[in-house]
Amino acid sequence: TVSVLYWPETGAPPRATNHQCTQPNLFRRPSAAMTESSGLVNAQRIRALVTRHVSSTGPVDQCDPAVLNEFVSIVHRGGSAEILGALKDPFKHGVPATQLRALHLIDRLVQNTPPDFTLCLTTEDWAERVFRTSKTTSSSEVADRIMLLVCSWHKRYPVEGMVKLIARFQQSKVVGERFQYIQADYNRRVAEKQQQRQRQEEEQQRQQQMQQQLSAQPSRTVHADPVGGPAPASRPRQTQRVDLNTLLMDVQGDMAGLEYGIQHPDMLDPDTAKDCAKHKATLSRIVENPAHVITDDERATVLAILEQLVNLLSFHDAINGTDYAGGA
């Protein structure tokens, strides 16, 4: 008997095409101890919130909105590692209901916070924990839920850590076959939803065109650009792509300077780390904000660069006692 899989909320509409981040990390990801924030979050408060959530008697796929909002605020203050640290034991050793509540909270934070949280989730320790728990849990529902969410997280943030985790599930002798079934079902559902959304958009455009034709006046006709370029309505996206390319060149230039400064501390310009922290915030907004019109390939590139940037800033913080990686 095949159980019915829970379909996760993905926040932004999922895409049907997988993208792998091919750019390698400049450094190995730092440990959680290296990325702890400096007093910006209250560890005791986080533990209390986690306990309140996982011990709830409500449905396992719900979270108190006030609690969720506070968790989101903590992530924005650089507390991703602390939240995951508090969730470690309930997720790994809890009863199935507790594990499902922990999973639901993790998923809500992946969907509602900047990529920083997901990058913490893809550290070697947490990737190992997610993979092993799918094999050791006493509940097939928990195992299926883990594998389904991994597919969802990879679709949303195809960073290198997620790509490796997907490959590990696929190659597993214990859960590999089940994972491949879940992944195929997930991809099929994503494709169906995308096709449905595309049909709805086409129908809306058709109706809008009909309305415009019925109410159009000669003075309202949209003419082509007099210099032979595209119509004015198509210019914002083109301009935005040019701006994105320029931004990424600036980011990579500052990253190279920061990397050199880490290797040669006496040559490090203090403003370089500050500039990189600003770039991190900007790239996070681009990934989060649907108003930024970028292609799937551009989004994958931004995520890969953002992952490298966070790693660089984390090493800089560990060496210099700053908090640009988590608090920026």
| DSSP strand tally | 0
CATH topology name of the largest domain, in short, is Serine Threonine Protein Phosphatase 5, Tetratricopeptide repeat
Q: Helicity level, as a percent range?
A: 55-70%
Number of helices: 13
* Approximate strand percentage: under 5%
Rg over C-alpha atoms, rounded to the nearest angstrom? 22 Å
State the CATH class of the largest domain. Mainly Alpha
- Structural class, from helix and strand content? mainly alpha
For the record, the count of structural domains works out to 2
Average pLDDT for all residues: 78
Low-confidence stretches: 1-39, 219-242
* Oligomeric state of shown chains: single chain
- What is the overall shape? globular
Q: Mind summarizing the main beta sheet?
A: none
Written as H for each helix and E for each strand, in order along the chain, the element string is: HHHHHHHHHHHHH
- Please give the CATH architecture of the largest domain: Alpha Horseshoe
Distance between the termini: 49 Å
InterPro entries: ENTH_VHS, VHS_dom
GO molecular function: phosphatidylinositol binding; ubiquitin binding
Region (Disordered): 192-242
Protein name: VHS domain-containing protein
